[in-house]
Amino acid sequence: MSYQSEVRDSIKAGDSLATVVVPANNYRELTLDIVAKLLGSKLGGIYVTTSRPSTHVVKEMKARKASLNDLYFVDMISLTVGGETGDPRTVFIDSPTMLESVLLNIGLLERRIKAKRHFVMFDSVNGLSIYSEMRVLKEFMNVLANTMRLRRTYTMMLTVDEQTPPELEAVLVTLSDCMIRGGTGDG
Amino acid sequence: MARGTEPMKPTAVKLDPRGGRPREKSKTYIEGMDRMLNGGIPIGNTSLLAGTVGSGKTTLAMEFLINGAKNGETACYISVTEPSSKMLENLRTYGFFDDSLVTEGKLNIFDLGIINDRLGVERLDGSYSPKDMEALLGAFEDIVDELQATRLVIDSITAVCYQLPDRGSIRNFIFRLGQFLSTFGCTTLLISETVVDAATQTYSIFGVEEAVADGVILMGNVQRQGDLLRTMQIVKMRGAKHSRARHLVELTPIGLSVVPLLKWGQETGAVYS
């Protein structure tokens, strides 16, 4: 089964939290395809990016002809790397270490979403692990997961298969309603 | 079973150990802060809003006033250190500020110059005599009474305390200030400047203010991987069952927002409050 179908099934099953384990070689393609598909299904979304600037994601989504009317961003990387910070649909976080800001800004952006149902895409757990110690990251994942569960927001935590240490994977398995390890990526 | 020896019915265990009737609260309307305060600051409380330079004390105090004014209350800000015109200019940079609150008299901003005019004196600076202290207390009382203010901020109480001759006078001044504000049902924040001291936690320069105040809200900074994060902690708040956990404070387009701070994300030995 493809990633997209597994995500769709997970939403239908009423899951709150899914970990999407993606192989490194086609990580970019797969993650953007998932988002494009969800937006096409009339869902609004919040894309939290730690691994690439939001402007880059927007550009690639536009190339896929995805509707971006109801997609918002929490960008944790642009201010660190000196990227563009003018996009009105994006909240730019000062530093990727400011993990609490993510929770706070997801809450604020949720108020702007027009669609009845929405998702949060967290790209990626590995991106955060570059800047934060494992114990901080584990605590953050725990808080994030439970906050989103309380808000009943469908949340996908992306992780690169080859870069996820067993300790982190164990945390993700414990917290998630389902682990999605798609096959082909088409569909 | 013999008469009169029936087992007693177990009484229901109250989950709130304090029980009793909660006091009426003055909501801050600051995202996350009312949850910390279990509904808001008890009406009539005089609290110290303590913190170091740049910790967000004035912004928080202003938002407390503005949110009250937006909800139909009358709010007063007394600046002891800055001219009111400069304060107003700074306020206009905040998305949550609305000029009409000032023109409609819901938000009133005073500086020491205006207070001196009301007192009919040219200047009230240097060390205060007992007479000056009475006059100043009288001026604050008049402002609150005249405007029927339900929210007041004095920025800063530290600057006032510097003019008082000794710790006894400071204690007396704050006690009496709190007393009449409580009678008026005016919820007050006294801004207190603190200095960084790694060895001991201080809430004021003179060490007297916190003992007399009904509440202490501590603003500070913690360092994480070299980044400074603004924090808030409620140390005491009479009449409220409140959180004592350290929270992160962030300025957002809708005003300040408060969320719990991650426990492991605070570097030991690098905490500035």
Automatic annotation (TrEMBL), chain B:
Chain ranges of the KaiC domain: 24-273
Entry keyword annotation includes ATP-binding: yes
Annotated region described as Disordered, given as residue ranges: 1-25
InterPro entries documented for this protein: KaiC-like_dom (IPR014774), KaiC_dom (IPR010624), P-loop_NTPase (IPR027417)
UniProt entry keywords in alphabetical sequence: ATP-binding, Nucleotide-binding
Pfam families: ATPase (PF06745)
Keyword Nucleotide-binding: yes
Basic and acidic residues bias spans: 15-25
GO molecular function, one term: ATP binding
Protein name: KaiC domain-containing protein
Natural source organism: marine metagenome
